[in-house]
Design a protein that fits this description.
With 233 residues, this protein is an alpha/beta fold. Helix content is 29%, strand content 23%. It has eight helices and nine strands. A nine-stranded mixed sheet has the order 5-4-3-2-6-1-7-9-8, sandwiched between helices. Helix 2 packs parallel to helix 4. The protein starts with a helix and ends with a strand. It binds NADP nicotinamide-adenine-dinucleotide phosphate (NAP). NADP nicotinamide-adenine-dinucleotide phosphate binds next to strand 1, strand 2, helix 3 and helix 8.
Length: 233
């Protein structure tokens, strides 16, 4: 297994102060973003270690409401050495969790709120249901960006203004598509899982218009048949 001592330098950030959106995704060798409806089934031991390392470096973890519901997101609990690493780098003990949602089909009892160690942030838009917004405000900070959908450029800027310039987005594919179209994706950390899934599951990007968008390969690691790619814009 690739150790954390190798992962930290391979994924180091050039400039902590600059606003950045880094995507972390896993796909099967045939391009499927899920197996059996979830992404966790594609992962492995190093993939999980990498997720912890990327989380350790982030000011906030951004996820779409679809992924929160499907993957059953709970609280963010960094391990002791990540807390130590964060403290040594002038960061808070744990990254904030940021959930993006227009419909706000979320309740205070959801693990994402009930198991939270720090108060999550829910980013929504002005057209969101007022009663739902008020209910969520009991358990999370609510940030309103945009009118009919979340204005993701405004969201990234607002989070940076709030002391969170380094964002790690863990999905899902629709949020990736929206961030891509908003032009705010800086980096993709992609794990290729040694599996051929077939079926009709989607890819890691959904909903974005087809366009040729070149990216640069910054590093490759491989371990136990998994490949870990780091691309930058
Ligand atoms: N392969 C991987 O690495 C990976 C990573 C993550 C997830 N997944 C998989 O992907 C699936 C879920 O993906 P998904 O694409 O359906 O969900 P998703 O991208 O996590 O969430 C989509 C939801 O996010 C909200 N959203 C996104 N952009 C928005 C915007 N601009 N304004 C307002 N709301 C916005 C909406 O929430 P509301 O509906 O609440 O309005 C939308 O329905 C699951 O099967 C999960 O396991 C795979």
């Amino acid at each position: 297994m690739i150790g954390r001592d190798e992962l930290f330098p391979a994924y180091a950030l050039d400039d902590r102060a600059t606003q950045r959106v880094r995507m972390n995704f896993v796909a099967s060798a045939d391009g499927s973003a899920t197996a059996g409806g979830r992404s966790g089934t594609l992962g492995g031991e190093t993939d999980r270690a990498l997720m912890e390392v990327l989380r350790a470096m982030a000011d906030a973890i951004v996820v779409g409401a679809g992924t929160v519901r499907t993957e059953g997101y709970g609280g963010v609990h960094p391990q002791d050495d990540d807390v130590a690493w964060r403290r040594a780098h002038g960061l808070s003990e744990a990254p904030r969790l940021v959930v993006v949602s227009r419909r706000l089909h979320l309740t205070a009892q959801d693990p994402v709120f009930a198991e939270a160690t720090t108060r999550p942030i829910v980013v929504t838009c002005a057209a969101a249901d007022t009663a739902r917004r008020e209910a969520i405000a009991e358990v999370a900070d609510v940030l309103v960006c945009g009118q009919d959908a979340v204005d993701l450029v405004a969201m990234v800027a607002a989070l940076a203004d709030g002391g969170m310039p380094q964002l790690l987005c863990e999905g899902g594919p629709h949020l990736f598509g929206s961030l891509l179209e908003a032009g705010v994706v800086d980096e993709l950390c992609l794990t290729i899982s040694p599996r051929l899934v077939g079926g009709s599951a989607g890819r890691i990007i959904a909903g974005a218009a087809e366009e040729d968008r070149p990216i640069r390969l910054r590093s490759i690691l491989h371990d136990d048949d998994f490949v870990f790619l780091r691309y930058a814009r």
